[in-house]
Design brief:
Blueprint (H helix, E strand, L loop, with lengths): L6 E5 L6 E2 L6 E9 L2 E10 L1 H23 L6
Amino acid sequence: MAGPSSWHASPRRDGAPHSDSTTGEVRVPLALFHIDEHQGDLDLVLSRVEGEELLDGLRTALTASVENTLRPGGVR
């Protein structure tokens, strides 16, 4: 059986995240891959709170990545 590191999901190019104004639910369309072979599509479904937490985590990770590239000797 393939290990979990050989699977990944990427945002689908044909869809954008959208939310339900009634429930606050957020759906992120994803493409699922095994190594580099497309296996299918699915939606990541998050509550509003989960979506906000994910956004905060992504913002923190992206900020740290940009700060590292701007430091002398950082990755370029």
